[in-house]
Structures are given as structure tokens and as C-alpha cells.
User: Fold this.
Amino acid sequence: MLVSPSLLSADFGNLGRELEMINASDADMLHIDVMDGVFVPNISFGFPVMKFVQKLCRKPLDVHLMIVEPQKFVGEVRDCGAEIMNVHYEACTHLNRTVQQIKAAGMKAGVTLNPATPVCLLRDIIAELDLVLLMSVNPGFGGQKFITGTLRKVADLRQLIAETGSKALIEIDGGVNLDTGTQLAQAGADILVAGNYVFNSADPVATIRGLKQL
Ligand code: DX5
Ligand code: ZN
Assistant:
């Protein structure tokens, strides 16, 4: 299993130390949650913090934009060192164009679905995608309870990927722990995001290792 710890639950007063922990861990990438207070009912952090993360983090950056009009910021996200730029399906009127812009900027393109958005809506874009991020909580906050209907969505997405010959990876975000992670692994997930479960555990490096072994 690939693991992408979510920085949202880190101790921002000790960000340097938290990033050293990530560098020393088995994490495959670092998940960066950007919120604008409009698309989601919360605000997290923006480009100045991401620049600092870029400088200190040696893992690829998996950026999840929970913002309206994400197409306006493709250049800024690239300049912050993002390897993957995830935009929400629900935030993009011209999703095909936005995906092409992300790829033209040299990043991998990910599209994120809210819990109530069905996987079938991706049929005409899935071949273009490097990754699909399924929200297993309503976006905006860490530490929420896993929505179990996500397991069926993973299976639906696996089937759509097989039918279309897409190379997209399946990433899951929200309420991931060893128990839900085990179920997600069985359902066919490729990447697990985990915030609260990693950063609020007694031994985050061991917690990441546990998820990796799923
Ligand atoms: C929620 C964010 C998540 C969040 C996950 O809106 O997109 O990435 O950090 O947090 P946990 O793992 O605590 O549910
Ligand atoms: Zn996220």
C-alpha cells in the first residue's frame, strides 16, 4: 500500500520536526490540504506554508485543493513543488481543460470526488487521469468518521478503470486507520491518506509502517 500522511493534523508549531519525521518514515508522499473557506467550511494554509514544506520535505507532495476555481492556481501549485495536483470534480466547470493545464505544467493530474458524487461521472475523463481521490469524509476537517459507502465506490472505480484501460491510481482520504485501511486494501485502494491516525499516534513512524504493510 502507498501511504500519504496528511499534514493537516501535524503540529504546526513544530513543522520542521514533523517534516523530519516524514522524511525518516516509510511514507511514499506527503498529502497537503489547501482549504479556502468557500468550497469547504474551513481554512487551512496556503502557498507561503507550502513553500516552507517544499524546502524541508524530501517526499513527493500530493496537493489536495479544496478551493473554488483551482484552475487559477496551477502555476503557483507547480512552483510549490507539487508532484500531484488534485482538484475537486465539484469545483471545476471545465474539468478537461483544467486536467490538461495541470499536465502541461508538468504535474500529475488527480480528480477528487466528494462522498455524494458518483464514480460514473468520471467516465469521460478517467483515461486522462493519473489519480482519483475518493473522499471518505465530507472535506474540511481532519479526524472525522469514515463513510463506509466508500468501499463500494472503490469497487466501482476499480471496474471503471479496468473497462477504460486507465492507469489512474485510487487514493482514499478521510477516517483512515488500520481497520478502515484493511477494508480499503481489500476493496482495491492504491494509496491511503491518513492525518489524525498518523500525527496523533504515539509513534507516527510505526503507524505509517503499519499502514504500508496493508
Ligand atoms: C479532509 C482532508 C483530509 C484530512 C484527513 O478534508 O482532505 O486530508 O486531513 O484527515 P483524517 O485522516 O484525520 O480523517
Ligand atoms: Zn485531503
Q: What stands out?
A: The helical segments are 15-24, 47-56, 74-79, 95-104, 150-164, 178-187, 196-199, 204-212.
